[in-house]
């Protein structure tokens, strides 16, 4: 008689939530205001304009294109002597809501401007279609910091070098991006200015000058320094170049992000042996641990409305983007594909998150819209990561 | 019309703080149907976006430096660790001897990490790896004037592949020969 070969599978009995399974972020699914769209005009502009307008509307998380909508947007795009003109009229039930003309050189920019105005006029909330996202790209020849608009236009190089460029952060006034460059052989902090088309080295302490984060008023930059052998968070006054130490520990303290009031900083520390997120006053002092469900968290980013923090955490062997309330509760997993999703940054209205992911193979920058959880790929070609988002009104 | 009010109020509940000082918007069209046309000029970036670096750093390397480079071996680390293993200590001991016995160059210790984990934390971990190797060499007797250390985190991997072998290659303290004394 053959004795059946018994295979006993150990069953892990867990509580209501096992350590490695999290509640997926659910779409907010607020009803979007339906808008029907029509575009007429010059044949070489119409398709581009229509497609981009539909994209911008559908990605807003507030409006949605529909055959029959609450509002009807009629757009005409024509070439003129000066460039391109976009005439838009929005009506609802025959009643005119807005009529506006836009003129400029690029059809995508005009569409974005109108789409944002449409969102604003129908909801009172700012649209993000005109905003840009900067990120780092690595190729075999080196590293570049480039900026990308939210349309098919190719990315535009801002700084390039053979050696590493990393952790960029866009200033609240939109004119500057600070970033770390290894050009001198040390990990220095540099500041690129759009108005001057120039990058200037602003801090070169021995060791790391990295992971910068602007205070919301633009008056201070929190960053990581490793001078003296301790990796801690400091505050830099870009006007005087003075640094103030905020954390004083033998462990790793890094990856600071200001709350929108500027009064608090969330950051990463491995003081208990593995990296977790902590919150302290932006003047330093006692830090309160805010994460306890992950074995490894990093890269926190505080939402512009102050009530949520996005971050990266390891689950199993993968890294995914999570969002929690700023008191650490209500943890929701945002990404499920790929094995390395990191660097989350919020869009300026808190309705979108940009992040890097290897979900398609090579690392690329993606944007997710949180009302419907649509994910859009932003970068194409090259290993791209470390997104940072421009403020509103940047064009 | 009730649906309209409901969708707008639902949307309003979700409104994030509207950032002030953003692009100006002429207030001449409103939802009550006031009808005017205005022309908004949408400006583009200037064509010259590309920035210039404010300082210039030149690096030179000569053949003799390449010879020294060949004599110095890197040390490798376990995942998430900056601890020097027995093998690592032996390698560093030989490196230290060579550095002390041979003059005419300096050494930059680069700390590197594999691609897993986040950029920020890995910059810090790389720093700790470089520092671990640096401290060993200094304790052995190497003159601190001849040593520097830097972290590259996971930013400049030796092997860009996405597998265990590549990862093992990338978790290292790399000794790079620099000109000078």
* Gross CATH architecture of the largest domain in chain A: 6 Propeller
Give the structural class of chain B. Answer: alpha+beta
Distance between termini of chain B? 81 Å
**What is the element string of chain B, with H for helices and E for strands?**
HEEHEHEHEHE
Which structural class matches the secondary elements of chain A? mainly beta
Instruction: List unreliable stretches of 5+ residues of chain A.
Output: 5-19
Helical run tally of chain A: 2
The strand line-up of the biggest sheet of chain A is: 2-1-3-4-5
The backbone outline of chain B, from C-alpha atoms, is extended
CATH topology of the largest domain in chain A: Neuraminidase
Question: Which CATH class of the largest domain in chain A?
Answer: Mainly Beta
With strands numbered from the N-terminus, the spatial order across the biggest sheet of chain B is 3-6-4-5
